[in-house]
Amino acid sequence: MLAEIDVVIIGAGVIGLATACEIAQGKKEVFVFEKNRTFGLETSSRNSEVIHAGIYHPEDSLKAKLCVEGKSLLYQLCDKHNIAYKMSGKIIVAADEDEISWLEKLYQQGRKNGVDDLVLLSRTELKKLEPNIEARAGLLSPSSGILDSYTLLKFLYSQAREKGVEFVFDTEVIGIERVGAKYKVQIKDRDGISAFVAYVVVNCAGLNSDMIAQLAGIDIAKAGYRLHYCKGEYFSLSSKYRNVVNRLIYPVPEQAGHGIHWRRGLDGRVLLGPSAYYVEAIDYVVDETHKQYFYNSAKRFLPFIELEDLAPESAGIRPKLQGPGEGFRDFVITHEEKAGFPGLINLIGIESPGLTAAPAIARYVGRMVAELFD
Question: Most buried residue, 2, 125, 131, 309, by most Cβ within 10 Å?
Fold first, then answer.
Protein backbone atom coordinates (compact mmCIF):
# COMPACT_ATOMS: atom_id res chain seq x y z
CA MET A 1 0.00 0.00 0.00
CA LEU A 2 1.24 3.46 -0.91
CA ALA A 3 1.30 6.16 1.75
CA GLU A 4 -1.65 8.56 1.51
CA ILE A 5 -1.43 12.36 1.90
CA ASP A 6 -4.28 14.88 2.02
CA VAL A 7 -2.57 17.64 0.02
CA VAL A 8 0.69 17.75 -1.90
CA ILE A 9 2.10 21.11 -2.97
CA ILE A 10 4.73 21.11 -5.69
CA GLY A 11 7.16 24.00 -5.33
CA ALA A 12 8.49 25.90 -2.31
CA GLY A 13 8.66 29.40 -3.69
CA VAL A 14 6.70 32.21 -2.05
CA ILE A 15 3.42 30.95 -3.54
CA GLY A 16 3.96 27.36 -2.40
CA LEU A 17 5.02 28.50 1.08
CA ALA A 18 2.10 30.90 1.55
CA THR A 19 -0.34 28.30 0.22
CA ALA A 20 1.04 25.65 2.57
CA CYS A 21 0.50 28.01 5.55
CA GLU A 22 -3.05 28.69 4.47
CA ILE A 23 -4.09 25.07 3.79
CA ALA A 24 -2.44 23.73 6.96
CA GLN A 25 -4.79 25.89 9.04
CA GLY A 26 -7.53 23.43 8.14
CA LYS A 27 -5.68 20.63 10.00
CA LYS A 28 -4.93 18.76 6.80
CA GLU A 29 -1.83 16.69 6.19
CA VAL A 30 0.25 18.81 3.81
CA PHE A 31 3.53 17.90 2.11
CA VAL A 32 5.60 20.30 -0.01
CA PHE A 33 8.02 18.86 -2.56
CA GLU A 34 10.80 21.07 -3.92
CA LYS A 35 13.42 20.04 -6.47
CA ASN A 36 16.00 22.50 -5.14
CA ARG A 37 18.03 22.16 -1.92
CA THR A 38 15.85 24.69 -0.04
CA PHE A 39 12.95 27.11 -0.45
CA GLY A 40 12.70 30.19 -2.67
CA LEU A 41 15.77 29.85 -4.87
CA GLU A 42 14.22 30.87 -8.19
CA THR A 43 11.75 33.63 -9.10
CA SER A 44 10.82 34.30 -5.46
CA SER A 45 14.33 35.48 -4.57
CA ARG A 46 15.43 36.88 -7.93
CA ASN A 47 13.18 39.90 -8.32
CA SER A 48 12.87 43.57 -7.35
CA GLU A 49 11.27 42.87 -3.94
CA VAL A 50 8.66 45.51 -4.77
CA ILE A 51 5.27 45.68 -3.07
CA HIS A 52 3.05 46.73 -5.96
CA ALA A 53 -0.14 48.77 -5.68
CA GLY A 54 -2.13 47.12 -8.50
CA ILE A 55 -1.99 49.82 -11.18
CA TYR A 56 -1.03 48.08 -14.38
CA HIS A 57 -3.43 45.21 -14.98
CA PRO A 58 -6.96 45.11 -16.43
CA GLU A 59 -9.89 45.63 -14.09
CA ASP A 60 -11.24 42.39 -12.59
CA SER A 61 -8.19 40.38 -13.67
CA LEU A 62 -6.69 38.10 -11.04
CA LYS A 63 -3.44 40.07 -11.28
CA ALA A 64 -5.25 43.30 -10.39
CA LYS A 65 -7.58 41.93 -7.69
CA LEU A 66 -5.04 39.72 -5.94
CA CYS A 67 -2.35 42.43 -6.07
CA VAL A 68 -4.61 45.00 -4.39
CA GLU A 69 -5.71 42.48 -1.75
CA GLY A 70 -2.22 41.07 -1.35
CA LYS A 71 -0.60 44.46 -0.80
CA SER A 72 -2.78 45.10 2.24
CA LEU A 73 -2.25 41.59 3.61
CA LEU A 74 1.51 41.77 3.04
CA TYR A 75 1.94 45.05 4.91
CA GLN A 76 -0.11 43.62 7.80
CA LEU A 77 2.03 40.47 7.80
CA CYS A 78 5.26 42.50 7.81
CA ASP A 79 4.05 44.70 10.67
CA LYS A 80 2.87 41.78 12.78
CA HIS A 81 5.97 39.63 12.35
CA ASN A 82 8.74 42.25 12.08
CA ILE A 83 9.58 41.58 8.45
CA ALA A 84 11.63 44.51 7.15
CA TYR A 85 9.92 46.74 4.60
CA LYS A 86 9.65 50.37 3.57
CA MET A 87 6.53 52.00 2.15
CA SER A 88 8.73 54.29 0.09
CA GLY A 89 6.18 55.09 -2.61
CA LYS A 90 6.70 54.86 -6.34
CA ILE A 91 6.68 57.44 -9.11
CA ILE A 92 6.11 56.43 -12.73
CA VAL A 93 7.79 59.16 -14.79
CA ALA A 94 7.11 60.52 -18.28
CA ALA A 95 9.84 61.84 -20.58
CA ASP A 96 7.56 63.46 -23.20
CA GLU A 97 3.94 64.29 -24.11
CA ASP A 98 3.18 60.79 -25.39
CA GLU A 99 4.30 59.31 -22.11
CA ILE A 100 2.21 61.83 -20.14
CA SER A 101 -0.88 60.40 -21.85
CA TRP A 102 0.28 56.95 -20.63
CA LEU A 103 0.39 58.26 -17.08
CA GLU A 104 -3.20 59.44 -17.38
CA LYS A 105 -4.25 56.00 -18.66
CA LEU A 106 -2.42 54.29 -15.80
CA TYR A 107 -4.07 56.65 -13.31
CA GLN A 108 -7.50 55.71 -14.63
CA GLN A 109 -6.62 52.00 -14.70
CA GLY A 110 -5.38 52.12 -11.13
CA ARG A 111 -8.56 53.85 -9.96
CA LYS A 112 -10.68 51.18 -11.66
CA ASN A 113 -8.65 48.53 -9.83
CA GLY A 114 -9.35 50.11 -6.45
CA VAL A 115 -6.03 51.94 -6.00
CA ASP A 116 -7.42 55.16 -4.55
CA ASP A 117 -4.27 56.97 -3.43
CA LEU A 118 -2.72 57.77 -6.84
CA VAL A 119 -1.65 61.35 -7.58
CA LEU A 120 -0.72 62.85 -10.97
CA LEU A 121 2.31 65.13 -10.61
CA SER A 122 3.38 68.13 -12.66
CA ARG A 123 7.06 68.63 -13.43
CA THR A 124 7.34 71.09 -10.51
CA GLU A 125 5.60 68.73 -8.08
CA LEU A 126 7.83 65.86 -9.20
CA LYS A 127 10.97 67.97 -8.69
CA LYS A 128 9.94 68.73 -5.11
CA LEU A 129 9.69 65.02 -4.34
CA GLU A 130 12.66 63.81 -6.40
CA PRO A 131 15.07 66.70 -7.11
CA ASN A 132 17.52 64.56 -9.11
CA ILE A 133 14.99 63.15 -11.57
CA GLU A 134 14.54 64.89 -14.93
CA ALA A 135 11.05 64.21 -16.31
CA ARG A 136 8.02 66.03 -17.68
CA ALA A 137 5.47 64.58 -15.25
CA GLY A 138 4.85 61.70 -12.87
CA LEU A 139 2.27 59.40 -11.30
CA LEU A 140 2.77 58.92 -7.57
CA SER A 141 1.73 55.67 -5.87
CA PRO A 142 2.30 56.40 -2.16
CA SER A 143 1.51 52.87 -0.93
CA SER A 144 4.03 51.04 -3.14
CA GLY A 145 7.14 49.85 -1.35
CA ILE A 146 9.90 47.28 -0.96
CA LEU A 147 10.49 44.41 1.46
CA ASP A 148 13.11 41.89 2.50
CA SER A 149 11.94 38.92 0.45
CA TYR A 150 14.28 36.41 2.11
CA THR A 151 12.94 37.23 5.57
CA LEU A 152 9.39 36.84 4.22
CA LEU A 153 10.24 33.45 2.70
CA LYS A 154 11.97 32.32 5.90
CA PHE A 155 8.97 33.38 7.99
CA LEU A 156 6.46 31.56 5.76
CA TYR A 157 8.61 28.43 5.82
CA SER A 158 8.90 28.51 9.62
CA GLN A 159 5.19 29.19 10.05
CA ALA A 160 4.25 26.33 7.73
CA ARG A 161 6.48 23.93 9.66
CA GLU A 162 4.94 25.05 12.95
CA LYS A 163 1.54 24.19 11.50
CA GLY A 164 2.71 20.67 10.69
CA VAL A 165 3.61 21.02 7.02
CA GLU A 166 6.28 18.53 5.91
CA PHE A 167 8.94 19.80 3.46
CA VAL A 168 10.89 17.45 1.22
CA PHE A 169 13.79 19.15 -0.62
CA ASP A 170 16.08 17.88 -3.38
CA THR A 171 13.09 15.91 -4.64
CA GLU A 172 11.62 16.15 -8.13
CA VAL A 173 8.07 15.18 -9.08
CA ILE A 174 8.37 12.99 -12.19
CA GLY A 175 4.87 11.55 -12.53
CA ILE A 176 1.25 12.36 -11.67
CA GLU A 177 -1.47 9.84 -12.50
CA ARG A 178 -5.17 9.93 -11.72
CA VAL A 179 -6.11 6.69 -9.93
CA GLY A 180 -9.76 6.54 -8.91
CA ALA A 181 -10.51 9.57 -6.74
CA LYS A 182 -6.83 10.22 -5.94
CA TYR A 183 -3.49 10.95 -7.58
CA LYS A 184 -0.48 8.68 -7.64
CA VAL A 185 2.55 10.96 -7.47
CA GLN A 186 6.00 9.68 -8.41
CA ILE A 187 9.07 11.40 -6.99
CA LYS A 188 12.80 11.11 -7.58
CA ASP A 189 15.42 11.88 -4.94
CA ARG A 190 19.00 10.81 -4.18
CA ASP A 191 17.72 7.41 -3.06
CA GLY A 192 15.86 6.69 -6.28
CA ILE A 193 12.20 6.69 -7.36
CA SER A 194 9.21 6.24 -5.07
CA ALA A 195 5.50 7.04 -5.03
CA PHE A 196 2.60 8.03 -2.79
CA VAL A 197 -1.08 8.87 -3.14
CA ALA A 198 -2.60 12.35 -2.66
CA TYR A 199 -6.21 13.51 -2.60
CA VAL A 200 -5.32 17.01 -3.80
CA VAL A 201 -2.34 18.18 -5.86
CA VAL A 202 -1.51 21.90 -5.93
CA ASN A 203 0.94 22.89 -8.66
CA CYS A 204 3.01 25.87 -7.47
CA ALA A 205 6.07 24.91 -9.50
CA GLY A 206 6.79 28.38 -10.91
CA LEU A 207 9.17 28.11 -13.86
CA ASN A 208 8.26 24.42 -14.25
CA SER A 209 4.52 24.71 -13.59
CA ASP A 210 3.56 24.06 -17.22
CA MET A 211 5.61 20.85 -17.22
CA ILE A 212 3.96 19.68 -13.99
CA ALA A 213 0.53 20.32 -15.55
CA GLN A 214 1.61 18.29 -18.56
CA LEU A 215 2.79 15.46 -16.29
CA ALA A 216 -0.70 15.33 -14.80
CA GLY A 217 -2.23 14.88 -18.25
CA ILE A 218 -3.16 18.44 -19.22
CA ASP A 219 -2.67 19.31 -22.91
CA ILE A 220 -0.73 22.51 -22.19
CA ALA A 221 -0.77 23.70 -25.81
CA LYS A 222 -4.56 23.38 -26.01
CA ALA A 223 -5.03 24.88 -22.53
CA GLY A 224 -2.69 27.79 -23.29
CA TYR A 225 -0.42 26.89 -20.40
CA ARG A 226 2.95 26.80 -22.15
CA LEU A 227 5.38 29.15 -20.42
CA HIS A 228 7.89 31.53 -21.99
CA TYR A 229 11.01 32.40 -20.01
CA CYS A 230 11.61 36.13 -19.78
CA LYS A 231 14.97 37.12 -18.31
CA GLY A 232 15.54 40.26 -16.29
CA GLU A 233 18.96 41.61 -15.34
CA TYR A 234 19.95 44.15 -12.72
CA PHE A 235 22.88 46.57 -12.53
CA SER A 236 23.86 48.45 -9.39
CA LEU A 237 24.84 52.11 -9.20
CA SER A 238 28.03 53.27 -7.51
CA SER A 239 27.74 53.86 -3.76
CA LYS A 240 28.08 57.60 -4.32
CA TYR A 241 24.47 57.51 -5.55
CA ARG A 242 23.01 55.97 -2.38
CA ASN A 243 20.71 58.96 -1.87
CA VAL A 244 20.04 59.84 -5.50
CA VAL A 245 16.35 58.81 -5.25
CA ASN A 246 13.96 58.58 -2.32
CA ARG A 247 11.32 56.39 -3.96
CA LEU A 248 10.95 53.68 -6.55
CA ILE A 249 11.25 55.38 -9.95
CA TYR A 250 9.66 53.65 -12.94
CA PRO A 251 9.38 54.57 -16.62
CA VAL A 252 6.10 53.95 -18.41
CA PRO A 253 5.71 50.15 -18.88
CA GLU A 254 7.05 48.09 -21.77
CA GLN A 255 5.42 45.09 -23.47
CA ALA A 256 7.30 42.42 -21.49
CA GLY A 257 7.81 44.26 -18.21
CA HIS A 258 7.60 47.50 -16.28
CA GLY A 259 10.78 48.92 -17.78
CA ILE A 260 14.19 49.65 -16.22
CA HIS A 261 13.42 51.20 -12.84
CA TRP A 262 15.41 52.60 -9.95
CA ARG A 263 15.11 50.86 -6.64
CA ARG A 264 16.74 52.13 -3.50
CA GLY A 265 16.99 49.04 -1.34
CA LEU A 266 16.58 48.67 2.40
CA ASP A 267 20.40 48.85 2.58
CA GLY A 268 20.45 52.19 0.71
CA ARG A 269 22.01 50.78 -2.47
CA VAL A 270 20.40 51.75 -5.79
CA LEU A 271 19.68 49.03 -8.37
CA LEU A 272 18.61 49.50 -11.97
CA GLY A 273 16.41 46.87 -13.59
CA PRO A 274 15.07 44.53 -14.48
CA SER A 275 15.39 44.36 -18.23
CA ALA A 276 13.04 42.02 -20.07
CA TYR A 277 13.98 39.72 -22.94
CA TYR A 278 12.89 36.21 -23.84
CA VAL A 279 15.28 33.27 -23.53
CA GLU A 280 15.11 29.56 -24.28
CA ALA A 281 16.93 28.29 -21.21
CA ILE A 282 17.29 29.31 -17.56
CA ASP A 283 20.53 30.93 -16.53
CA TYR A 284 21.31 33.71 -14.08
CA VAL A 285 24.42 35.21 -15.68
CA VAL A 286 24.35 38.99 -16.18
CA ASP A 287 25.59 39.91 -19.65
CA GLU A 288 27.96 42.83 -19.09
CA THR A 289 27.52 43.95 -22.70
CA HIS A 290 24.00 45.06 -21.68
CA LYS A 291 25.49 47.79 -19.50
CA GLN A 292 25.10 50.36 -22.30
CA TYR A 293 21.36 49.64 -22.56
CA PHE A 294 20.93 50.15 -18.80
CA TYR A 295 23.01 53.31 -18.95
CA ASN A 296 20.94 54.74 -21.82
CA SER A 297 17.70 53.91 -20.00
CA ALA A 298 18.87 55.49 -16.75
CA LYS A 299 20.39 58.59 -18.34
CA ARG A 300 16.98 59.64 -19.71
CA PHE A 301 15.96 60.59 -16.18
CA LEU A 302 19.31 60.81 -14.35
CA PRO A 303 21.44 62.71 -16.88
CA PHE A 304 24.49 63.09 -14.65
CA ILE A 305 25.37 59.40 -14.23
CA GLU A 306 28.32 57.89 -16.13
CA LEU A 307 28.72 54.48 -17.75
CA GLU A 308 31.43 53.45 -15.29
CA ASP A 309 28.98 54.05 -12.41
CA LEU A 310 27.13 50.83 -13.32
CA ALA A 311 28.15 47.30 -12.26
CA PRO A 312 26.43 43.94 -12.97
CA GLU A 313 24.36 42.74 -10.00
CA SER A 314 21.99 39.80 -10.54
CA ALA A 315 19.36 38.23 -12.82
CA GLY A 316 16.05 36.42 -12.61
CA ILE A 317 13.56 34.64 -14.87
CA ARG A 318 9.84 35.39 -15.15
CA PRO A 319 7.47 32.51 -16.04
CA LYS A 320 5.33 34.34 -18.63
CA LEU A 321 2.27 32.97 -20.35
CA GLN A 322 2.47 35.59 -23.09
CA GLY A 323 5.20 35.18 -25.68
CA PRO A 324 7.06 37.96 -27.52
CA GLY A 325 4.67 40.55 -28.95
CA GLU A 326 1.59 38.93 -27.39
CA GLY A 327 -1.01 40.73 -25.30
CA PHE A 328 -1.93 40.54 -21.64
CA ARG A 329 -2.26 37.13 -20.00
CA ASP A 330 -3.65 36.74 -16.52
CA PHE A 331 -2.54 34.37 -13.78
CA VAL A 332 -3.87 30.84 -14.22
CA ILE A 333 -5.22 29.64 -10.86
CA THR A 334 -7.62 26.85 -11.75
CA HIS A 335 -9.19 23.74 -10.27
CA GLU A 336 -9.02 21.41 -13.28
CA GLU A 337 -12.28 19.56 -12.61
CA LYS A 338 -13.79 20.63 -15.96
CA ALA A 339 -10.72 19.29 -17.74
CA GLY A 340 -11.31 15.91 -16.09
CA PHE A 341 -8.84 16.30 -13.22
CA PRO A 342 -10.80 16.88 -10.00
CA GLY A 343 -8.44 17.60 -7.12
CA LEU A 344 -5.72 19.10 -9.35
CA ILE A 345 -5.16 22.85 -8.87
CA ASN A 346 -2.79 24.56 -11.30
CA LEU A 347 -1.07 27.89 -10.68
CA ILE A 348 0.73 28.86 -13.90
CA GLY A 349 2.28 32.12 -15.08
CA ILE A 350 2.64 33.50 -11.56
CA GLU A 351 5.03 36.34 -12.37
CA SER A 352 4.83 39.98 -11.23
CA PRO A 353 2.90 40.94 -9.12
CA GLY A 354 3.11 37.43 -7.66
CA LEU A 355 5.26 38.38 -4.64
CA THR A 356 2.81 41.12 -3.62
CA ALA A 357 -0.20 38.93 -4.35
CA ALA A 358 1.15 35.85 -2.54
CA PRO A 359 -0.97 36.12 0.64
CA ALA A 360 -4.11 36.73 -1.43
CA ILE A 361 -3.27 33.90 -3.84
CA ALA A 362 -2.85 31.60 -0.84
CA ARG A 363 -6.32 32.51 0.43
CA TYR A 364 -7.78 32.04 -3.06
CA VAL A 365 -6.28 28.54 -3.35
CA GLY A 366 -7.15 27.78 0.27
CA ARG A 367 -10.83 28.30 -0.51
CA MET A 368 -10.56 25.92 -3.48
CA VAL A 369 -8.96 23.24 -1.31
CA ALA A 370 -11.51 23.70 1.49
CA GLU A 371 -14.34 23.10 -0.97
CA LEU A 372 -12.73 19.83 -2.08
CA PHE A 373 -12.76 18.53 1.51
CA ASP A 374 -16.30 19.73 2.36
Answer: 309
